[in-house]
Design a protein that fits this description.
With 495 residues, the chain is of the alpha/beta class. The chain is 41% helix and 12% strand. Helix 14 packs across helix 18.
C-alpha cells in the first residue's frame, strides 16, 4: 500500500482530469455537468453529438457554464473522417488530397479555416492531423487519411496543418505515434504489428512527428500498434519505451500525450479497459480518449476508480498521475489564452472546394463524347472502417443530379455488382464511383463488366488511386469529402 502525499479529493480530481470521455445526446447530460464540478477537465464530441454548428455552439456553452477552462475535443480530420459535417460530408478535402496538391500554403489555409469553424463552435482541441506515412497501400484504416507515401511530403504538410489549426487557438493532436501507416490490421479490431528495423522506423515514420513537434503541436496521440524494434512486448499506447523514452526523451516532446480510443479491441480486448488505462498513464500518456463506443457515466466512474486504486496499491506512481493531470490543465489554459485569436481569422468559406478542385487528377482515354445527358451513377460501396463510420454520405450523385437533371443513382457491392449496375442503368451512360479499387477484387471485377459493355463509362476513384486509371474518363479525387464529390462532378460534366 502506497502512502499518499495528497488528500483523497486531489487524487480523485486528478483521475477525472486525465479522462476525455464522450457522452450521448446533443445537449449536456446532467452526469457530465456534475463530474465537471468534481474535476473532469475534458469532454469529447462525436458524430452522435452533432446536428448543426449552432447546436454544437449551444452545447459547448452549456458545458462551459460548469467549467470555463474545459477542453472540448473532437475527432475532426476533415476529408473522410469528419464529425462537424458528419451528416453532409466534409467541407474540406482530407490529407491525401492536400498531399496530392503539395502546396503547404494551401494545407495551412484549409486547416486554418477548419480551426476557425471549430473555435466558433466552442471546440478547442482537435484529434488531428494524421502524420502517418502511407507506406502500405493496403492499409485498411489509414489510406486517404495520410498525406501520402513520401515521408518528406507528409512531414511538411503535417507541420503546415498544425500551424494553420493552432493559429486559431485550437490545439492540434498529431497522430498516430510512432506511425500507423505500414499496417494491414485495423487497431479497432486487433493489435497491428509493424515489423521494420529501427533505421526504417527512424527514417520513414518519425520525421513527420519531428516536424509536428518543431511546429509546436500541443498534443500527440499514441497508436495501439506493436513495434518490436522499439518494444517487443507492449503496443505504443502502453509502452514506456515509446512514450517516455522515445517521444519525450529522444524527440524532446513536452506537450500532452493522448491515447487513441481505449475501447478499441487492440487494448480493451487484450488488456481490459480499466487495466489498459492504468498501464497507459504509467507508460507516459497524459490523457485517455474514451467514448467513441462507451459513453456513459459508469465507464467514467470505473476508469476513475481504477486509476485511484492503482495509485493506492502502488501500481501507478502518484506523481505520474499528478503530472498527467497537470499537463491536461496546462493545455486547457493555453486554449483559453489563445481563444481570442479565432476572432481575428478571416473566413475563407470556399477554400475547401478550391483545394478539392486542385486535388483532382483527370486521365482521358481515347476521345469520348462529352457528358451532356442524364447519367446513371453506380456507386460501389466497400464496408466502411470504424474511423470513417457509416453516417457520412459520399459520392458524386447529389451534385451530378443537380448538374444533369434526371440522373439517377444506385449502390452496389459483391461479385455481381457490375452486372447489376448495368441492368439498373437501362442504357444510360454510367458514372462508376469506387473507393480503393486496388483493395477490393470485387470492385475491379465490377469495373471490368461495366467497361466491357460500356467503354464510355466514366470512373471516379474516391480512395487512394493505386489501381491504374481506366474508363473513358478517370477522375481521382484522393478522398471522399463532400467537396471532392462536387469537384469530381464538375469535372465529369466539363469532360
Amino acid at each position: 500500500m502506497t502512502t499518499l502525499t495528497t488528500g483523497p479529493g486531489t487524487l480523485t480530481r486528478d483521475a477525472l482530469a486525465v479522462l476525455q470521455p464522450g457522452f450521448d445526446g446533443t445537449t449536456a447530460p446532467d452526469w457530465v455537468r456534475r463530474r465537471l464540478g468534481e474535476g473532469l477537465a475534458s469532454v469529447a464530441l462525436f458524430g452522435r453529438n452533432v446536428v448543426t454548428e449552432e447546436q454544437v455552439t449551444a452545447l459547448t456553452a452549456q458545458l462551459r457554464a460548469e467549467r470555463d477552462d474545459l477542453l472540448v475535443a473532437i475527432d475532426e480530420e476533415s476529408g473522410d473522417v469528419t464529425r462537424l459535417d458528419v451528416r453532409t460530408g466534409s467541407s474540406f478535402p482530407g490529407n491525401h488530397a492536400l498531399g496530392a496538391v503539395d502546396d503547404p500554403g494551401l494545407t495551412r489555409a484549409v486547416s486554418r479555416e477548419l480551426g476557425r469553424r471549430l473555435a466558433a463552435c466552442g471546440v478547442n482541441f482537435d484529434w488531428a492531423p494524421s502524420a502517418d506515412v502511407n507506406a502500405n497501400p493496403d492499409n485498411p484504416v489509414i489510406g486517404v487519411r495520410s498525406f501520402g507515401a513520401d515521408t518528406a511530403l507528409v512531414a511538411r504538410h503535417t507541420a503546415a496543418w498544425v500551424e494553420g489549426l493552432q493559429s486559431t487557438g485550437v490545439a492540434a493532436c498529431t497522430k498516430h505515434f510512432p506511425g500507423h501507416g505500414d499496417t494491414n490490421v485495423d487497431s479497432h479490431h486487433a493489435v497491428p504489428r509493424i515489423d521494420v528495423d529501427a533505421q526504417t522506423l527512424y527514417e520513414r515514420e518519425l520525421p513527420p512527428f519531428r516536424a509536428a513537434i518543431a511546429a509546436g503541436t500541443r498534443a500527440v496521440m499514441s497508436a495501439h500498434i506493436l513495434v518490436p524494434a522499439l518494444d517487443a512486448e507492449r503496443p505504443g499506447t502502453l509502452s514506456r519505451r515509446i512514450l517516455t523514452d522515445l517521444l519525450r526523451g529522444e524527440l524532446g516532446y513536452r506537450g500532452l500525450i493522448v491515447t487513441d480510443g481505449m475501447e478499441m479491441r487492440a487494448i480493451s480486448g487484450t488488456y481490459g479497459l480499466e487495466h489498459g488505462v492504468v498501464l497507459a498513464i504509467a507508460a507516459g500518456a497524459d490523457a485517455i480518449c474514451v467514448g467513441g463506443g462507451l459513453c456513459d457515466e459508469a465507464t467514467v466512474l470505473s476508469l476513475r476508480d481504477a486509476l485511484v486504486a492503482a495509485v493506492r496499491s502502488g501500481e501507478l506512481p502518484e506523481e505520474r498521475l499528478a503530472d498527467a493531470a497537470a499537463r491536461v490543465r496546462e493545455l486547457a489554459r493555453w486554449t483559453a489564452e489563445t481563444r481570442k485569436d479565432a476572432e481575428t481569422v478571416v473566413p475563407e468559406p470556399e477554400i475547401g472546394l478550391t483545394a478539392a478542385r486542385r486535388a483532382l487528377t483527370v486521365t482521358r482515354a481515347a476521345p469520348a463524347a462529352p457528358v451532356t445527358e442524364p447519367v446513371y451513377v453506380a456507386r460501389f460501396n466497400p464496408a466502411p472502417n470504424i474511423a470513417v463510420g457509416d453516417q457520412t454520405p459520399w459520392g458524386v450523385a447529389a451534385e451530378l443530379c443537380r448538374l444533369l437533371p434526371g440522373s439517377a443513382e444506385g449502390s452496389f457491392g459483391g461479385p455481381a455488382a457490375g452486372r447489376e449496375a448495368l441492368a439498373a442503368a437501362s442504357g444510360r451512360r454510367v458514372v462508376a464511383v469506387v473507393r480503393d479499387e486496388h483493395r477490393h477484387a470485387w470492385m475491379g471485377t465490377a469495373l471490368d463488366a461495366l467497361l466491357a459493355a460500356r467503354p464510355d463509362t466514366v470512373v471516379v476513384e474516391m480512395g487512394v488511386p493505386q489501381a491504374p486509371p481506366r474508363g473513358a474518363l478517370h477522375i481521382a479525387t484522393h478522398g471522399a469529402a463532400r467537396v471532392c464529390g462536387v469537384a469530381a462532378a464538375e469535372a465529369v460534366v466539363a469532360g
